[in-house]
Specification:
The complex is a heterotetramer, with two copies of chain A (82 residues), one copy of chain B (758 residues) and one copy of chain C (222 residues).
Chain A (H helix, E strand, L loop, with lengths): L1 E6 L6 H9 L8 E14 L4 H16 L5 E6 L7
Chain B lengths: L7 H4 L4 H11 L5 H10 L2 H4 L4 H4 L9 E3 L6 E6 L2 E9 L1 H6 L1 H17 L4 E11 L5 H21 L3 E8 L8 E11 L14 E6 L9 H5 L9 H4 L13 H16 L5 E4 L4 H13 L2 E5 L12 H6 L5 E6 L4 H10 L4 E8 L2 E2 L5 E2 L1 E5 L6 E6 H5 L15 H6 L11 H8 L4 H4 L10 E3 L6 E4 L11 E7 L2 H6 L1 H17 L4 E10 L6 H21 L3 E7 L3 E2 L2 E2 L3 E10 L16 E6 L15 H5 L12 H19 L6 E6 L4 H13 L3 E3 L4 H6 L5 E6 L2 H10 L4 E7 L3 E4 L3 E4 H17 L3
Parallel strand pairs in B: 4-5, 9-14, 19-20, 26-29
Antiparallel strand pairs in B: 1-2, 2-3, 3-6, 4-6, 7-10, 7-11, 8-10, 9-11, 12-13, 14-15, 16-17, 17-18, 18-23, 19-23, 21-22, 24-27, 24-28, 25-27, 26-28, 29-30
Chain C lengths: L2 E6 L6 H10 L3 E6 L10 E4 L20 H10 L4 E4 L1 H8 L6 E3 L7 E9 L15 E8 L3 E3 L2 H9 L3 E5 L10 E5 L5 E4 L17 H9 L5
Parallel strand pairs in C: 1-2, 1-3, 3-4, 4-11
Antiparallel strand pairs in C: 5-8, 6-7, 6-9, 9-10, 10-11
The chains are: A alpha+beta (82), B alpha+beta (758), C alpha/beta (222).
The complex binds adenosine-5'-diphosphate and magnesium ion.
Chain lengths: 82, 758, 222, 82
């Protein structure tokens, strides 16, 4: 299970902004809206995928994020095909 | 300019009377934007409307005061061509909602107040107050606040050298996070937040503006939390978008601003704090007696769609407003580019309007484009200085006599004094270990002792061998019982802390954390507390050069205990050797120096002591201290320790003032620090062990007759307490503990308490 | 050593302290802005402590791309003495001038405290004047100071005497108690503790002197 | 575009371990292998998805991760019309 924690819309993201500012000097152009976030991977014992997802969501909201500034969402652990 | 609906002013925190005042000032109805500007500027937080009347009673002058209260920071002349700036502020309400960012932005804000004066910030202190450590939420608050201060302070590159740490359930939903900053500057670089020179430009430096804390600090800090659990109930409209601190931006801003000042490129400079741009522009204009045109469209935004009201009142962090001449614009831009600091011309200084009576009035005009539509037009001084002044009703709490009568001083002790003593020992090392306390190579005494002591040195300062000492103190339990006496004793305690590092007090700053001023009992507490501070400062001849008032610290209708935090700044004239600290050696004689008993009916009062509070006993009487004896004692200790700092040989090997936890705690702390035990005479029961009244010092000496002789000559009382030796602390028949037991308990108490809460 | 360049990145904060320590030992320190591309004329280079580029992303991750770093790398390759203190060590590791990486302290908090270091090799510009086994009390001040590397690298740096300083009591979870590390040649050294903060008993310890004296005594292309 | 950065196998993860230890007391059982990671979201101007992915991968490897201790992978997030 993977929990993604991102800053809420409108909350300042100094880390993302600093990385973005540094990019042109490193030869990366055309990159914008850089946002830094956190992710947590874990194994959850549960009867079903939906039960696991529910558990992860509750974990995400109660422990892994601060809802005042962050959004959290849980997803199943397979890599999204690219 | 359409006029707003009836209730808009109330939603903005303005009373009906205040709306009438605004109409009188303007001679017409305000529009929405104007009303919003008044709403934030006339909030309690920005205008001090409930406290200003009382603050006037504080003594604020002395020959060495260069800048007193009212500016961004107070400034004294510390000698050798160096001026020292100091300021304290609260960030209580934001920290209750998001402890990390609340505390972090508190540090950021206080630094800006200091470098605004042209001073390089050299040190921070952080008095903190939480509920008892009994649940995971308090732990979350403690860890969040401490890591916020650590995360911001360390990264921005200013050492945190001390603070306070108090746990009491009155702070359960209302943690207090106060931050003090001290900085230094070559005397001639002193600048003030003044706009002048018609045609000059107002340049906004630093971060882009977002919807951070709109109406935030100002509105939040001007209304209590309604529900039981502060954070849970603030969900609604009052919840601002939380401000996020960026220490890296602030670091570049500090360096850029100091370079601008060194280069003589600015006329005036002002930080953006509570109430953001409207506050910075109206205050600078008001101080300079000029008008200012602000172009809201010129303000760099972090996100699209902000309306003028949001732009003007946003509390986005890490921004400064510099007033410069147009000729310097290119140079300012070049310097800002070097530091990667954004610089945008957002305003112009304009001539004040002439009024019929021959006086002039500087107008703050908010415009849509420099030559565009005028969105708001109000007298700058009306916003900045002319908020209504309230003499709110005051009333001595009706329960106070009863509470005072319930005095724990004569309680029969239950259990063993050994356990009582162990229970009182807490080293906040878990907190201050997270703070860089040594940057700039000035820290002679860091956190964990009586006062912090710094060399008075820093980049760009004239050379000096002086030192500055700092202490923050509070005693809410005393102040709940007797705000006047309690606050005076708190000042005395701070001065005693300075004496332990050989420093003479030069200035006081204070942060008055109180409950809801609309409660007459709270106003009485505030007024009494201010009088107590004034009395103590007059007696000691110390000017109060700055402060901050944080009101509405209440939740669920109950107010915190009155919590005046006293910050003291002292100077050591010659600092070439460290003060002796707590490290006595084997075989020293231990002497109690100063008053032997309190000045009242109770020789060893326990009302408001930590010993009594631990037992749930919150009543009693706070006795006074004889100021004459206190002054003699302080002078004596300062002379003794000051001479050691100046490099002289001395028989004095250790010194520590008696404060929280009383004499027994002071002895145990010294035992823990040195690893050498002590054999101490019988004392007058648990009251003498644990009574906290200030003005007493434990000194250790290798030549007791010589010390006693010097004390006698100075008119200071001494008694022999015993001898430092062995591996146990024994006090008469009452205390018998091993050195390791004391040391490990003291070191681990806080960390263990936190670890049990998951 | 005559001229020492102290590199200043935006966000550095120990540059004045490092310069003061150098000057106190008779060298002549000059602050060098991170956009500099030429370090010729310097006899030694220090990357000081602090939070270069805010430590955003990872400490040292952005700083290693600062223009000055190419010059630092050239200077190092020609044998010039390079010292990275705290953040400077992180930058050198990110830049690949020293092996391994630094992670968050095991306790997940910033640590500011005195530590006792043991000199384990004098095969470096920082420890050449110290005695192996000598104990030094020097403070640490970091959040991201737990040294890590793969097993192979660990064996190599231990065997070759590249580990120059180890903690007597490991405060942060560093592998093999590593506090300071040199490159193979011994001219590039990084350490997490702050020797420049241990230059005088007035401030608590003078044990850092022996290290910085060694550095000042080092010669280019030693 | 999203770049996920995770600690490499075998590298100590004190953050993940601390969270895992705290879970039972909060009433979460059956959660194991907690690993803390980082994620970066950004908008990349590119001619094609594969070009964007390539750019993100290069960014991930050169800047956003430290190969000594971290693995990084790029994946597509939402597409923003330009
Ligand atoms: N929050 C904190 N941050 C940093 N240092 C702290 C903090 N709380 C307490 N300290 C330090 O711990 C020591 C003990 O504090 P305290 O018991 O209040 O001292 P005193 O009784 O002498 O006033 C002081 O040096 C103080 O600066
Ligand atoms: Mg004290």
């Amino acid at each position: 299970m993977i929990v993604d924690v991102t800053l809420r819309q409108g909350i300042a993201d100094p880390e993302g902004a600093t990385i973005e500012r540094a990019l042109p000097a490193l030869g990366f152009s055309g990159v914008s809206n850089v946002k830094a976030g956190k992710s947590f991977r874990m194994t959850i014992d549960a009867e079903s995928e939906s039960a696991a997802l529910e558990k992860a969501t509750s974990l995400a909201e109660r422990l892994l994020s601060n809802p005042v500034i962050e959004d959290a969402a849980a997803r199943l652990g397979e890599r999204v095909a690219t | 300019m359409s006029s707003p609906p009836q209730s808009l002013h109330r939603a903005l925190g303005l009373s009906d009377d205040e709306l009438d005042d605004i109409k009188t000032v303007l001679g017409r109805d305000p529009n929405h934007l104007e009303l919003a500007l008044f709403g934030v500027m006339w909030s309690e937080h920005c205008s001090y409307k409930s406290s200003r009347l009382h603050l006037r009673r504080l003594p604020t002058t002395a020959p060495h005061v260069l800048v007193g209260p009212g500016e961004n920071a107070g400034v004294i002349d510390a000698g050798d061509g160096i001026a020292v700036a100091i300021r304290i502020e609260s960030h209580n309400h934001p920290s209750a909602i998001e402890p990390y960012q609340g505390a972090a932005t508190g540090v950021g804000g206080i630094l800006r107040d200091v470098f605004t004066m042209g001073a390089r910030p050299l040190a921070v202190m952080d008095p903190l107050f939480f509920g008892e450590l009994t649940d995971a939420r308090q732990r979350w608050l403690v860890e969040g606040v401490v890591s916020g201060i650590s995360g911001y302070g360390n990264s921005v590159g200013v050492p945190t050298i001390g603070g306070e740490l108090t746990f009491d359930d009155c702070y359960r939903s209302n943690p207090l996070v106060n931050v003090l900053c001290v900085g230094a500057l070559p005397k001639e670089r002193l600048v003030l937040g003044v706009a002048s020179g018609v045609g000059n430009l107002a340049v906004l430096l630093g971060s882009r503006t977002g919807r951070d804390g709109i109406g935030g600090v100002s509105v939040l800090a001007s209304a209590g939390f309604s529900g039981e659990d502060g954070a849970a109930s603030i969900d609604d409209a009052k919840r601002p978008s939380v401000q996020v601190g960026d220490p890296y931006e602030e670091k570049r801003l500090i360096e850029a601003c100091l370079e601008l000042l060194d280069g003589g490129l600015v006329v005036g400079i002002q930080d953006l704090g509570g109430a953001g741009l409207v506050c910075a522009t109206s205050e600078t204009a008001a101080r300079g007696g000029v008008g200012m045109d602000v172009d809201v469209t010129a303000v760099p935004l972090r996100e699209p769609g902000l309306v003028p009201f949001e732009i003007m009142t946003s509390e986005s962090q890490e921004r400064m407003l510099a007033i410069i001449t147009p000729e310097n614009l290119d140079a300012v831009r070049a310097l800002c580019d070097k530091w990667e600091v954004r610089a945008a011309v957002v305003g112009r200084v304009v001539a004040p309007l002439s009024r019929r009576d021959g006086t002039t009035q500087g107008m703050l005009r908010i415009r849509n484009g420099f030559d565009g539509e005028v969105l708001a037009e109000v007298p700058a001084s009306a916003l900045a200085d002319e908020a209504p002044l309230y003499d709110r009703p005051r009333e001595r709490p009706s329960t106070l006599d009863q509470v005072r009568a319930d005095d724990p001083t004569f309680d029969e002790p239950v259990g063993s004094p050994n356990d009582d003593l162990l229970d009182l020992l807490v080293d906040p090392v878990w907190v201050y270990r997270q703070y860089d306390s040594q940057l700039f190579l000035n820290t002679v005494v860091g956190p964990g002792r009586d006062a912090a002591l710094l060399r008075l040195a820093g980049p760009g300062l004239p050379s000096s061998t002086r030192g500055i000492a700092l202490s923050t103190d509070s005693n809410p339990r005393w102040c709940a019982l007797d705000p006047r006496n309690g606050t005076a004793l708190t000042v005395f305690e701070g001065v005693a802390n300075l004496a332990c590092v050989g420093a003479k007090p030069k200035a006081v700053v204070n942060c008055l954390n109180f409950g809801n001023p609309e409660h007459p009992e709270v106003m009485w507490q505030l007024s009494e507390s201010i009088d107590g501070m004034a009395d103590a400062c007059v007696a000691l001849e110390i000017p109060v050069i700055g402060g901050n008032v944080s009101l509405y610290n209440e939740s669920g209708g109950s107010d915190i205990d009155p919590t005046p935090v006293i910050g003291l700044l002292g100077v050591v004239d010659e600092l070439v050797a460290p003060p002796p600290g707590w490290n006595w050696r084997e075989g020293n004689v231990l002497v109690l120096v100063g008053a032997q008993r309190a000045d009242g009916e109770r020789p060893f009062p326990l009302g408001g002591s930590r010993w009594a509070t631990k037992r749930g006993r919150r009543g009693g009487v706070v006795e006074g201290v004889d100021p004459v004896a206190l002054l003699l004692t302080l002078d004596f200790v300062v002379a003794e320790i000051g001479s050691i700092c100046a490099g002289a040989a001395s028989d004095v090997t250790a010194v520590h003032d008696v404060s929280g936890g009383g004499l027994a705690t002071a002895l145990a702390e010294m035992v823990a620090a040195t690893g050498v035990g002590a054999e101490v005479v019988e004392l007058d029961g648990h009251a003498e062990l644990f009574s906290e009244f200030p003005g007493r010092f434990v000194m250790a000496t290798s030549d007791v007759e010589a010390l006693e002789e010097r004390a006698r000559a100075a008119g200071v009382l001494t008694t022999r307490l015993g001898v430092s030796q062995g591996e146990r602390l024994r006090v008469g028949s009452m205390i018998d503990l091993s050195v390791t037991q004391i040391a490990s308990r003291r070191r681990d108490a806080l960390e263990e308490a936190l670890a049990t809460l998951n | 050593m005559n001229r020492v360049g102290v590199v200043v990145f935006p966000g550095s904060n120990c540059e004045y302290d490092a310069a003061a320590a150098m000057n106190a030992l008779g060298a002549k320190a000059e602050l060098v802005w991170h956009s500099t591309t030429d370090l010729s004329g310097f006899d030694g280079v220090i990357l000081p402590g602090g939070f270069a580029h805010g430590d955003y992303l990872r400490p040292g991750a952005l700083a290693r791309f600062s223009p000055v770093m190419e010059a630092v790398s050239r200077f190092a390759h020609t044998g010039g003495p390079v010292l990275g203190i705290c953040n400077g060590f992180q930058v050198l590791a990110e830049a690949g001038l020293l092996p391994g990486a630094l992670q968050k302290n095991i306790g997940l908090t910033f640590l500011s405290q005195p530590t006792t270091l043991v000199v384990t090799s004098n095969n470096s510009v920082l420890t050449s004047g110290a005695v192996i086994g000598q104990e030094l009390v020097i403070p640490i001040n970091h959040f991201v100071g737990s040294y890590t590397c793969d097993d192979e690298t660990l064996k190599r740096v231990l065997d070759s005497g590249q580990v120059v300083l180890r903690y007597k009591e490991n405060p942060n979870g560093s592998r093999a108690d590593i506090a300071g590390l040199a490159n193979e040649r011994g001219n590039v050294v990084g350490l997490m503790p702050h020797p420049e903060r241990a230059m005088s008993t007035l401030l608590g310890s003078a044990d850092g002197r022996v290290l910085l004296e060694s550095f000042v005594a080092a010669n280019v292309a030693a």
